[in-house]
Each structure stands twice: as C-alpha cells, then as structure tokens.
Amino acid sequence: MGHIEFNPLSKITEDDNYYNKDPTLKDQVHVLVCVVSAETSNILSNEYVKKMRDVRLAARDMGIPEVAILTKIDEACPEVKKDIKNVYKSKYLKKQMEKIKVVLGTPEKSIFPVKNYHSEIDTDDDTDTLILSALRRIINLGEDFVNDQ
After folding, report:
1. Does some domain include residue 18?
2. pLDDT < 70 positions in the chain
3. Structural domain range at position 139
4. Which of helix, strand or coil describes residue 65?
5. What is the pTM of this model?
6. Structural contact between residues 67 and 137, judged by C-beta atoms closer than 8 angstroms
7. How many structural domains comprise the chain?
8. How far is CA 92 from the centre of its chain?
9. DSSP per-residue string spanning 89-138
10. Cα separations (Å) of 66 from 61, 80, 97, 110, 121?
11. Are the CB atoms for 16 and 74 separated by under 8 Å?
12. d(CA 118, CA 135)
C-alpha cells in the first residue's frame, strides 16, 4: 500500500526512487472513486472496463473502500432532466446503475447518481442534495478507513 501508478506505460516498482516502502497514513489512498457518465456508460470499452475492474479489485484487496459516481444523469434521462426528483424513479438510471454493479463489480449501495452543474448560474437544492450525499459517503468511508488503520 502507499504507491500509485500514474503512468500505465511506466509502472512504479519497488526499485523505483519514487516507491514509498513505508507510507504513512497521509500517503495512502483512503477511498477509490470511479466516475462514469450516464451518457457514455453504454459504450465503455472492454479494455476500460477491465482496467477499472483490476483497479477496483486491487483496492478491495488492500481494504480500500469504493464508490462509483454516475454523472450527467439529467443529460442521459429526459425524465430526470424534467425533474431531478425523478432520479430514483428512472428505469433508465436504474439500468445504468445495475450495469455498473455487474460490469465493474461495485456494490449498488455504493453507486451515486449526480447531476452536473454545467450551464446553471444558480444552485439547486435537489441537485446539491445528490452531490452532497455522494460526498458525505466518500468522506465517511475515508474516515472509517483511517480509523481502522
């Protein structure tokens, strides 16, 4: 634990100068967050899915908790675009979340749909609620990880 691969073409090994053999808690990853667009989740390549699954499994083996964020839900689903409160009623988004669960292996309770702010000038309480719920879960998982160390 405590080393991160930033460049897939040049993996860090134990012989590398940047490899940290004895990482402190601040040097460790506390939560793995995978962000997937609801618009493009249907076209994820097999190569991308394999890489994400490999990273997720490696994190799981190290005891690192995981979260998946399903973004752009309003752009992917007209029902949600019309009213963000329809997020958990949407059959399309339910299917997308199920797909992430099956393809990546992320538990359903750890998949959070969010609407991105992209052209809005003012904030919206319902949009903020989704975003803050996901962030709260990430923070809680990170705190739990730190407390278990």
Report:
1. no
2. 1-12
3. 28-116+124-148
4. coil
5. 0.82
6. yes
7. 1
8. 19
9. T-HHHHHHHHHHHHHH---GGGEEE-PPPSS-SS--HHHHHHHHHHHHHH
10. 11, 25, 15, 7, 32
11. no
12. 18
Per-residue pLDDT reduced to its tens digit, 94-103: 999 999 999 8
Give CA–CA dist 74/72, Å, rounded.
5
Residue-wise pLDDT for 35-68, tens only, equals 999 988 777 788 888 888 888 888 888 889 999 9
How many H helices and E strands in the chain? 5, 3
Instruction: Return the structure tokens found at 57.
Output: 């499994």
Q: DSSP letter at 41? A: G
Torsion angle in degrees (nearest 10) through CA of 84, 86, 88, 94: -100
Helix (H) / strand (E) containing 59: helix 46-61
Helix (H, G, I), strand (E, B) or coil at 70: strand
The SS3 call for residue 66 is strand
| 77 occurs within a structural domain | yes
CATH of the domain at 108: 3.40.50.300
| 104 within some domain | yes
